[in-house]
Amino acid sequence: MSSLQPVRGTHDLIGEERRRFNHVVETARRIVSLYGFDEWSTPIFEDTRVFSRSLGDTSDVVSKEMYTFEDRGGESLTLRPEGTAAICRALVTNGLTQSLPQKVFYAGPMFRYERPQKGRYRQFHQIGAELLGAAEPLADAEIIAMGRDVLGALGIGDEVVLELNTLGDTASRDAWRTALITYFSDRRDDLSADSQTRLERNPLRILDSKAQQDRALVADAPTIDQFLTPEAQEFWDGLRRTLDVMGVPFRHNPRIVRGLDYYGHTAFEFVTERLGAQGTVLAGGRYDGLVAEMGGPATPAIGWAGGIERLSMLLAESPADPRPVAVIPMGADAQAAGLTVLQAIRAAGIRAETSYRGNMKRRMERANRMNATHAIVVGSDEIARGVVQVKDLDSGQQAEVAMDGVADFLRAGSAPKA
Ligand code: ATP
Ligand code: MG
């Protein structure tokens, strides 16, 4: 039997990596809660139609990236490739389209069959936010500002740029699409094979192509600006004005699209130079048509999703774990008293550990290895007198402390020094 390996494109999160990951999610939770967002969790797999209907069969995700399988009952299920469709399904099936707006945050694994590379996996993780039931550009500005605040709180605000575009309303987009088809049809033979397919099915997607040979053609392609209806123009102006008021800097990038039909008006990406080709850390847009695709009433909505792995890679350093206290019982007789002290320290909210075996020297070495702040030595002599020895491992100072006063002593010691 060949040796077992993790599945290609999957990875374990251990130690520093898991700490960074947690920091991203916890920071996002804290910031979105300031904006009044509530966290939802939806299942990791859904009826395949949740994604195939919503993402449309021309999207890369549906045409080649989905993990779809039949379960034992013959149902077609799909491991969720993204969160938005699932949140919209949940909005409809929980009857919440009558209680709008809903402000939703989520975090969890997503699955896409892609070519793995740095910052691109087959099981990856996203944080995401959806604001359901608000049609005003103020909602777009607010959710964008929230994304920026998450990045700021992670300490990477200066390393990402907000790129913003409008996809207009349906009439604007139809006129633009026609112009794009004319433009790219004249240059059809120079397009990548993928983009030739996109030309027939969804020409906007060509603008998002990562193929080098498409890039030059895309650079000169018509932009939507000249096709905007007065209403779409007004929305676009309103969004930019509101972002200015909120102090959110952005760069207009007319190449940014969201390839799916239900996206309109706002499209944006927070990008960095530091991750090579995988430079988009957080991306979103307005999708007023999606809830209706799920069988709900027409519901305006806007949201974003960010890749937790990519965000983790940008963090300068993960917040350090709190240092523990090591409890060291001397010999079998001190075991029970040692445990009592250990649990009392933990009950006081201080991280504490004990070794499972070894002599005093070994245990002391281990305390140093785990970077303990203190070693609490519990010996039979001391037990008889109701005390323990507390050794400060940084200063080397030792103190005799009443057994039931250890937690208080440690808390006082860990208070910030004047
Ligand atoms: P890309 O253009 O990089 O393929 P996308 O447009 O497919 O991204 P979205 O569906 O908008 O990505 O997902 C939002 C974010 O999720 C991305 O900006 C990225 O940070 C992250 N992401 C997407 N796919 C992956 C993946 N396979 N591995 C890791 N992170 C990913
Ligand atoms: Mg992709």
In terms of topology, how is this protein built?
Blueprint: H1 16-34, E1 38-39, E2 45-47, H2 48-55, H3 60-65, E3 67-70, E4 76-79, H4 84-93, E5 102-111, E6 123-132, H5 137-153, E7 161-166, H6 170-185, H7 193-201, H8 212-219, H9 230-245, E8 251-252, E9 264-271, E10 280-286, H10 290-293, E11 301-307, H11 308-314, E12 325-329, H12 335-347, E13 352-354, H13 360-369, E14 374-378, H14 380-385, E15 387-392, E16 398-402, H15 406-414
Parallel strand pairs: 1-5, 7-8, 12-13, 12-14
Antiparallel strand pairs: 2-4, 3-4, 5-6, 6-11, 7-9, 9-10, 10-11, 14-15, 15-16
Helix pairs in contact: 1-5, 1-11, 5-9
The structure holds adenosine-5'-triphosphate and magnesium ion (MG).
Adenosine-5'-triphosphate (ATP) is lined by residues 82, 112, 114, 119-121, 124, 126, 278, 280-281, 283, 305-307, 309-310.
